[in-house]
Amino acid sequence: MTETAQTAVGHQGTAAGRGVRLPRTARRAQLLAAAQDVFVNNGYHAAAMDEIAERAGVSKPVLYQHFPGKLELYMALLESHVDELVGRVRDALASTTDNKQRVKAAVAAFYDFVDGEGQAFRMVFESDLRGEPAVAQAVERATTDSVDAITETITVDAGLDEHRARLLAVGLVGLSQVTARAWLADDRKLSKEDAVSLISNLAWRGIGGGFPLQH
């Protein structure tokens, strides 16, 4: 059975995966897929390792072979989602040298993340475990690493000092994140393309109009 098929088993909540030996990386992917559903639907505190194992179609001992406890499993998922978001932002900034298109691509990175399969954004932006220092640090990294990447680009291209560039970057990240979540909560009444264009145009009028590209 392929990794994709095993992951599908985890999503369907059947026990078909019991007794099937998988490579460690494939088994880990299967367990994470099952855990994602449980954590998003129930939150951390109400999620049970029994349910995650059952949804993945494995025994609890198999689950504990890969993750010593619920927090370790949650953190593995959370860190992967933070890496995904930051990677999307960095890829967006590197995708073009046209700064207007860079702004649009950066905004779109947040919309694409929020609109992604599995509602990963809820673990990053709506975690019910922010009192846990490791979780708080990971959640904060989603913002700070995105801000750092945008700050570097603005500093180079607009010729601003780091403090001004960082404040603009914080504004762009905040605007993108908040409006993307509001768009989703409003049942996508605008197409994603229209929403991204609307917000990126708003951001560009401030960044592009006030701080032109330095040659």
UniProtKB/TrEMBL annotation:
Does the record's keyword annotation contain Transcription regulation?
Answer: yes
UniProt-listed Gene3D superfamilies? Tetracycline Repressor, domain 2
Where in the chain is the DNA-binding region found? 48-67
The protein's UniProt keywords, in alphabetical order, are: DNA-binding, Transcription, Transcription regulation
Database matches in PROSITE patterns? HTH_TETR_2
Key word Transcription regulation present: yes
Highest taxon of source? Bacteria
The record's listing under InterPro entries reads: DesT_TetR_C (IPR054129), Homeodomain-like_sf (IPR009057), HTH-type_TetR-like_transc_reg (IPR050109), HTH_TetR (IPR001647), Tet_transcr_reg_TetR-rel_C_sf (IPR036271)
- For region Disordered, the annotated ranges are 1-20
* Gene Ontology MF, one: DNA-binding transcription factor activity
Q: Name one GO biological process term.
A: negative regulation of DNA-templated transcription
Residue limits of the HTH tetR-type domain?
A: 25-85
Q: What is this protein called?
A: TetR family transcriptional regulator
